[in-house]
Design a protein that fits this description.
Elements lengths: L2 E8 L3 H11 L2 E7 L5 E6 L6 E5 L3 E5 L3 H10 L4 E7 L2 E7 L5 E6 L1
Length: 108
């Protein structure tokens, strides 16, 4: 794995949360409709590679150069892995840790 790419923070009111994080010094990186009535809202601090997403659910997105290889490695080591989904934004594979926290591999 390359890096922590996005930390997804669950919020009840996206606009209120957006105002809070903008006040902290975050900047909007991406804001776009997701097709399910929700908006993808991604914010970041200047000069930082890791961003946050204000969403309806929790998760951490980890960037990888080879999602198939990483998925196979994780499955071989006993991690219950999901399917690799191809999307316009890259390939994604969701999984959960032992405590039920959502993690996602992303290959651009």
């Amino acid at each position: 794995m390359k890096k922590v790419e996005i930390i997804m923070i669950p919020v009840a009111d996206q606009e209120k949360a957006k105002a809070f994080y903008l006040n902290l010094g975050f900047q909007v990186v991406a804001e776009a409709p997701m097709g399910n009535g929700e908006t993808w809202l991604q914010l970041g601090l200047p000069n930082s590679d890791t961003t946050i997403s204000l969403a309806k659910f929790q998760g951490i997105i980890l960037e990888t150069n080879d999602i198939a290889k990483e998925t196979e490695r994780l499955a071989t080591s006993g991690v219950k892995v999901g399917n690799i989904d191809n999307t316009p934004w890259g390939k994604f594979m969701w999984m959960k840790d032992g405590d039920g926290n959502s993690l996602c591999l992303h290959e651009k």
